[in-house]
Amino acid sequence: MDVLVVGAGVVGLAIGRSLALRGHAVVVAETEGAFGTGVSSRSSEVIHAGMYYPTGSLRARHCVDGARRLYNLCESHGVPHRACGKLIVAADEAEADKIAAIRAQGEANGVRGLELLDGAAARRLEPNLACALALHSPRTGIVDSHALMLALLGEIEDQGGALALRSPVEALSRRDGQWQARLGGAEPGAIAFDAVVNAAGFGAPGLAARTEDYPAERVPRLHLARGNYFGCTGKPAFSRLIYPAPRIDGGLGIHLTLDLNGRTRFGPDVEWVEAPDYRVDSGRAEAFYGAIRRYWPALPDGALYPDYAGLRPKLTGPGEPAADFRVEGPAEHGLPGLVHLFGIESPGLTSSLSLAEDVADRLAA
Predict the structure, then answer these.
(1) What is residue 104's predicted lDDT score, i.e. its pLDDT?
(2) For 60-92, what is each residue's pLDDT tens digit?
(3) Whole-number Å distance between alpha carbons of 92 and 327
(4) What is the Cα–Cα distance from 365 to 11, expressed in whole angstroms?
(5) C-alpha distance from residue 301 to each of 2, 128, 184, 237, 282 (Å)
(6) Contact (CB, 8 A) for 105 and 137
(7) What is the CB neighbour count within 10 angstroms for residue 188?
(8) b/e map 19-32, b = 16+ CB within 10 Å
(9) Using an 8 Å Cβ cutoff, are 312 and 202 in contact?
(10) Helices (H), the chain
């Protein structure tokens, strides 16, 4: 089967790899001049364990399964990563119930190794931490996302697949039992495929709307949430990721993450925007200081500096509960050989290998 995967982010590349390993001829089409330049290039690179999401949701299922698959792939392919662990902290007793609920949710989702710690036990792990209670997730980790995507692309190419850069897919139509993909770019034209997977991130709803006979009511509205990150000067004060008790604002709170070089960064916050914009407003630092000092009171004045921003393609807007991933295959929309993926944001990187198997199974059904 000849398959077109639209979008060369981590999810699109994972899907391309899964299909190529199953013996399909795969082309991954990417609008930009390199892979992974969209959502995948501006994440926190965290391997999530899966304790935040409702049991039975696609997020919960694919995050837990995806984390296991991701650690295995990193080990077998030499992708830099580290299971550094994470502490989710309650700043005071009023937040303690939230932490206990997250533990219960994680255990219901099949997350292993979660442990509730009182403030003293948490400080024995992280002496600079201030909290009343913490949930320790030892299997949360970090990964080099670029190296991961390079490994996925390598396997696609090893199986005879190809990456087509600067190849925007402008429309899809069904002709003679195949999908006709109209391509733009320097060499526009139409190419026929047996199946198409739309993993275009921000562009996924737009391509769905330009898919002939795809039900208009199934095309979701896209909400853009910018997440700003601030770096931190000085020697790292923590060896694990630190997350506050989450709030209902579209994110998990301003948390402390680490990269594989040990560099500390904070974020993301949630800033709803109408159009892509990756500038970080230095004035947002004041809110960052206040949030961070709830769990790190000793954060020095002047230590934060604007680092980078990422965008998330959300299916729900301000004040609304987070939506689940949407994977729309033939069973949902009735069109053969077609899968659209909508709202694949966090934990999309962690979930990518599991989502890929799901998509491949839907095309095989």
Answers:
(1) 97
(2) 999 999 999 999 999 999 999 999 999 999 999
(3) 39
(4) 20
(5) 57, 16, 50, 15, 14
(6) no
(7) 11
(8) bbbbebbbbbbbbe
(9) no
(10) 10-21, 58-77, 96-108, 119-125, 145-158, 204-209, 285-292, 330-333, 348-364
Do 304 and 229 touch, CB atoms closer than 8 A? Answer: no
Q: Around 45, how many Cα atoms within 13 Å sit in the side-chain half-sphere?
A: 28
As a whole number, mean pLDDT of residues 288-303 equals 97
Q: Is the pLDDT of residue 249 over 80?
A: no
Q: Which residue has the tokens 């330009």?
A: 210
Please report the pLDDT score of residue 246 as a whole number.
82
Neighbours of 290 (CB within 10 A): 10
| CA-closest candidate to residue 18, choices 43, 34, 1, 39 | 1
Supply the pTM of this predicted model. Answer: 0.96
**Residue 120 CB coordination number (10 Å):** 7
Q: Is the peptide bond before 306 cis (omega within 30 degrees of 0)?
A: no
Task: Express each pLDDT in 85-121 by its tens digit.
Answer: 999 999 998 899 999 999 999 999 999 999 999 999 9
Distance CA 252, CA 337 (A): 36
Give the SS3 label for residue 189. strand
**165: burial class by Cβ within 10 Å (0-12, 13-18, 19+)?**
middle
From 355, 349, 316, select the one nearest 61 (Cα to Cα): 355
Q: What structural domains and CATH numbers belong to the chain?
A: 2-66+145-221+321-364 (3.50.50.60), 86-138+223-314 (3.30.9.10)
Return the amino acid letter for 176.
D
Residue pair 61/361 in contact by the 8 Å Cβ criterion: no
User: Could you tell me which residue, 55 or 277, shows the higher pLDDT?
Assistant: 55
How far from 74 is each of 112, 228, 290, CA to CA, in Å? 20, 28, 36
pLDDT for 90: 96
Distance in angstroms (rounded) separating the CA atoms of residues 325 and 257: 24
